[in-house]
Amino acid sequence: MTAVSGAIRFILNGEAISLTDVPPDLTLLDWLRLERRLRGSKEGCAEGDCGACTVLVGRLMDDEIIYDSVTACIRFVGSLHGTHVVTIEHLRGENGNLHPVQQAMVDHHGSQCGFCTPGFVMSLYGLWMRNPDPSQAAIEKALQGNLCRCTGYAPIIRAAQAMSSYGLPQGDPLLAERIALKAQIKALNDGSRVEIGEGENRIIVPASLDDFAAVYESNPEATIVAGSTDVGLWVTKFMRRIGPVIFIGHLQELKRIAENASEIRFYAGVSYSEAMPTLTAAFPAMAELWDRIAGEQVRNMGTIGGNIANGSPIGDTPPPFIALGAKLHLRRGEHRREIKLEDYFLAYGKQDRQPGEFVESVTIPLLPAGERFAVYKLSKRREEDISALCGAFRVFINDAGVVGMARIAFGGMAATPKRAKAVEAALVGQPWTLESVEAAMSAFATDYQPISDMRASADYRLLSAQNLLKRFFLESTGQGQRLRREVA
Ligand SMILES: Cc1cc2nc3c(=O)[nH]c(=O)nc-3n(C[C@H](O)[C@H](O)[C@H](O)COP(=O)(O)OP(=O)(O)OC[C@H]3O[C@@H](n4cnc5c(N)ncnc54)[C@H](O)[C@@H]3O)c2cc1C
Ligand code: FES
Ligand code: FES
């Protein structure tokens, strides 16, 4: 019998919080600013794009508290059970001075109007904690999700490069507090389910994966919320009611990554940031794509399971995973089934998922020796932008130089992520030459009739898909270096 508790409990800065009456759609930013009067975190966009609302959320992981930068505007209070929330108001240096990160920003003129500054400082604080002396690339990556309209960024980057000369994490006044908080955080993660509210206001925070399966089976009308990087916008942009809600972002069993000699299995709650090292080691061709998904805060929150489950035609994980032949593991109560990932997407907004059923994991076969694989994302901005189209290509060329196997999948070209089966058929059995590739390019028009929207016109999408096949051919035959340098 699972123990049930009736309060969302977490630590805000140094204060223990216990909430028994929280609407499921209450965002952390609204709660901080409107109820707690902590107005350092700003609201710029309310959709996870600008980073002005960045705070750190510490969660227990293998007996340590790991701090992630997150966007408070799309994080729900109900998802915070058992965590430590750190806001800009809590930062301080020794003897009443500014924190080293803040002082570096002041001295290097990293702030002008100041609206974005708390968000930048919190992102940099998260970076400084794990890497006090970061490279420029690491700084840029940590700040992909923070926008500034005044400074031009160079002063902020200079401040980030200087952070370590102002102080190191070992001297952080908050370090002692965090060590002391560990026992408290552990006690909050005591293995009970949290349930508060009634009807549409009901929040359930399951105790375990099995508990989640049971709770969702008996409450199939509930909205599952993992990282809330999609659902958050339903609330802040579309004013949708989402209750009752089951929060699953805390479930350790959904954060597992299991590898063997032939495949990698990601459980649904693995965030982009958590998946990155394993995924890019197994598929180096995926590194550039991963770096271009959202910004750091959203990558810390958004999950692989959420990206697949939402069925979006422009999600970035389905095209490469389909090209690699991924299998999806679905679960309803104790019943599990496995389908090909490509079969999950039935039509726009319609997926092969029954009421009470959820995505438990996805298994991705490793590339057999000799196969070539690449994935390309086209979007208007390099960072923090959703794909206009995303194409993944995988071929096997036999010893005779003939295409023995081809799997190509695209997002942004149809109402669902979809394979280019006509193009694949046009390539298989042909020599892997520019002539064959150019001949196969016209088959994209059979596979896809893309739409025109704010991200790209139909003509642009079709032409780009064709040209990406040519690019894949050129790169896979060693002629791509020049292309890559021109693009970079
Ligand atoms: C600023 C910003 C930038 C973004 N950039 C990108 C980008 O570059 N590329 C991209 O692909 N996406 C992008 N996204 C979209 C989003 O980050 C992803 O789709 C993310 O993977 C969603 O995961 P989540 O855990 O946040 O899902 P949530 O928002 O928690 O849930 C999304 C949907 O999936 C359902 N769901 C979640 N987990 C499960 C599960 N285990 N089983 C069944 N249903 C489940 C929810 O009920 C909901 O319907 C961006 C979002 C933002 C806010
Ligand atoms: S207010 Fe812009 S990311 Fe939150
Ligand atoms: S200092 Fe004005 S927006 Fe960054």
Descriptive notes:
34% of the residues lie in helices and 22% in strands. The protein has 488 residues and is an alpha+beta fold. The model has no long low-confidence stretch (mean pLDDT 95). A hairpin with a 2-residue loop joins β15 and β16. 47% of the residues are buried. The protein is globular and about 70 Å long. α2 packs across α5, α15 packs antiparallel against α16 and α16 runs antiparallel to α18. It is built from 19 helices and 21 strands. Strands 1-7-8-10-9 form a 5-stranded mixed β-sheet, with helices on one face. A 5-stranded mixed β-sheet has the order 3-2-6-4-5. Strands 11-12-17-13-14 form a 5-stranded antiparallel β-sheet. Bound molecules: flavin-adenine dinucleotide and FE2/S2 (inorganic) cluster (FES) (2 copies).
Brief digest:
This protein has 19 helices and 21 strands.
Q: Top keywords for this entry?
A:
alpha+beta; 5-stranded mixed sheet; 21 strands; globular; 34% helix; binds FE2/S2 (inorganic) cluster; 488 residues
Q: Could you give the order of strands across the largest sheet?
A: 1-7-8-10-9
Cα radius of gyration in angstroms: 23 Å
DSSP, total strands: 21
In the predicted model, the low-confidence regions spanning at least 5 consecutive residues are: none
How far the N terminus sits from the C terminus, by CA atoms, comes to: 57 Å
By DSSP (H or I, 4+ residues per run), the number of helices equals: 19
Mean pLDDT: 95
Q: What ligand species are in this complex?
A: flavin-adenine dinucleotide, FE2/S2 (inorganic) cluster
β-strand percent reads 15-25%
Helix content: 25-40%
Structural class assignment? alpha+beta
Main sheet record: 5 strands, mixed
Shape: globular
